[in-house]
């Protein structure tokens, strides 16, 4: 089978290239076997793990997710899910680096409250500054504010990850214009993180020009997570190809598909 342009167009994060632009989480599956099957079906190469909720070695004797998702095969992206202040988020990243033998790539999120799970952007800025100075490659969850995205880039974050909608909501991209403005204003990769509900949401994000999409609930909460993971993989690829192809300009009125000259009567 011939390769498509999107397959040659690779995602680069912190100097590392990836063939897949779909990043997936590991929570909310019924068991580790389903987690493994869904992630395999997704084709993802970067897998994010909530350090405060998932054992990656900090709890000896309990099932370790790295046994089924080995770092030799996947880039493990430890995240600070469940952190509501700067100190906890920074401490969690440092614990992950110790457990993963000096691994510096992390996903930072500092939440504002447990009802909306929206980011506390003031605390996020403070934590990001500390982590960057400490040698971490920080991919950062934030709101869909172009000004905040630019400031996080200026601090040295390697990727900016604005939400499409609240975490786990499945509402899709609620503010396409803000996401588009972020893409236009920053030079680091922009990845939609949170709020994707189905394959069309992922395709829209990619058609806007996002470098990738991170999701968990949209796959894990589907009636058939493995099948949805495959659908998301195809949507990411199709959306990226559509972006690279360049869509036609929208028109108010009809435009005939066939030529208007050389007609036979």
Let me know the largest β-sheet. Answer: 5 strands, parallel
| Oligomeric state of shown chains | single chain
Structural class: alpha/beta
Share of helix, binned? 25-40%
Number of helices: 9
List keywords for this structure.
five-stranded parallel β-sheet, 9 helices, 265 residues, three-stranded parallel β-sheet, alpha/beta
Overview of the molecule:
The chain is α/β, with parallel strands linked by helices and 265 residues long. Helices cover 37% and strands 15% of the residues. It is built from 9 helices and 10 strands. Helix 2 packs parallel to helix 9, helix 4 runs parallel beside helix 5 and helix 7 packs parallel to helix 9.
Topology:
Blueprint: H1 5-8, E1 11-13, E2 16-18, E3 22-25, H2 32-42, E4 46-50, E5 75-79, H3 86-99, E6 105-108, H4 121-133, E7 137-142, H5 146-155, E8 159-162, H6 176-185, E9 191-193, H7 199-208, E10 212-215, H8 217-220, H9 225-245
Parallel strand pairs: 3-4, 3-10, 4-5, 6-7, 7-8, 9-10
Antiparallel strand pairs: 1-2
What is the compact description of this entry?
By secondary structure, the chain is of the alpha/beta class. Helices cover 37% and strands 15% of the residues. It is globular.
């Amino acid at each position: 089978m011939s390769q498509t342009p999107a397959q040659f167009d690779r995602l680069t994060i912190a100097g590392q290239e990836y063939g897949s632009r779909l990043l997936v989480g590991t929570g909310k599956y019924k068991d580790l076997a389903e987690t493994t099957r869904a992630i395999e079906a997704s084709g993802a190469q970067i897998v994010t793990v909530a350090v405060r909720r998932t054992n990656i070695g900090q709890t000896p004797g309990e099932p370790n997710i790295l046994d089924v998702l080995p770092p030799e095969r996947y880039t493990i992206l430890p995240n600070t899910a469940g952190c509501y202040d700067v100190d906890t988020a920074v401490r969690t990243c440092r614990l992950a680096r110790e457990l993963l033998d000096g691994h510096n790539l992390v996903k930072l999120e500092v939440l504002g409250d447990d009802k909306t799970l929206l980011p506390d952007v003031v605390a996020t800025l403070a934590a990001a500054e500390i982590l960057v100075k400490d040698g971490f490659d920080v991919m950062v969850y934030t709101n869909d504010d172009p000004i905040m995205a630019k400031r996080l880039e200026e601090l040295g974050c390697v990727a900016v990850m604005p939400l499409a909608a609240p975490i786990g909501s499945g509402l899709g991209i609620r503010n396409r214009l803000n996401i588009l403005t972020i893409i236009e204003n920053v030079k680091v990769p922009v990845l939609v993180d949170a709020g994707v509900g189905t394959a069309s949401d992922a395709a829209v994000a990619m058609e806007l020009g996002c470098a990738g999409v991170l999701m968990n609930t949209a796959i894990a909460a589907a009636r058939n997570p493995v099948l949805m993971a495959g659908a998301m993989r195809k949507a990411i690829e199709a959306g990226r190809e559509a972006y690279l192809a360049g869509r036609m300009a929208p028109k108010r009125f009809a435009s005939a598909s066939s030529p208007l000259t050389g007609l036979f009567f």
